[in-house]
């Protein structure tokens, strides 16, 4: 009985970890899609068969700023959640 309970708990934890990984991947994909869309709209004013050097620079800078902002927000959110858990809220 105890072994079965432990097996069930291990399976449940494995499934939860798998779901968390899948959610993280979906969030990363969504971030990339949104940043690509927003940066394209900002940087590409006249679509053509190739990107100008100014468009390439704009896209690179835009993606970098988008990722920096995302990382700042993520770190702040994780810190806040951690503090709330420690405070028992």
Protein architecture, described:
By secondary structure, the protein is an all-alpha fold. Helices cover 87% and strands 0% of the residues. It contains 2 helices and no strands.
Low-confidence stretches: none
What's the helical proportion of residues? over 70%
What is the residue-averaged pLDDT?
89
Q: Helix- and strand-based class?
A: mainly alpha
Strand content: under 5%
In whole angstroms, the N-to-C terminal distance is: 36 Å
Tertiary shape: elongated
Q: Give Rg in angstroms.
A: 21 Å
Number of strands: 0
Sheet with the most strands, sense and barrel status: none
What series of H and E elements makes up the topology? Answer: HH
Total number of helices: 2
List the helices and strands and how they pair.
Elements: H1 2-43, H2 53-87
Helix pairs in contact: 1-2
Q: Short summary of the structure?
A:
With 89 residues, the chain is mostly helical. Helices cover 87% and strands 0% of the residues. It is elongated.
Note the main attributes of this structure.
89 residues, mainly alpha, 2 helices
């Amino acid at each position: 009985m105890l072994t079965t309970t432990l097996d069930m708990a291990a399976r449940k934890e494995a499934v939860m970890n798998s779901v968390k990984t899948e959610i993280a991947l979906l969030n990363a994909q969504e971030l990339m899609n949104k940043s690509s869309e927003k940066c394209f709209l900002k940087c590409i004013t006249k679509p053509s068969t190739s990107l100008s050097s100014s468009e390439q620079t704009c896209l690179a800078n835009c993606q970098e700023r988008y990722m920096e902002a995302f990382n700042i927000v993520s770190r702040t959110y994780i810190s806040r959640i951690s503090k709330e858990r420690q405070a028992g809220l």
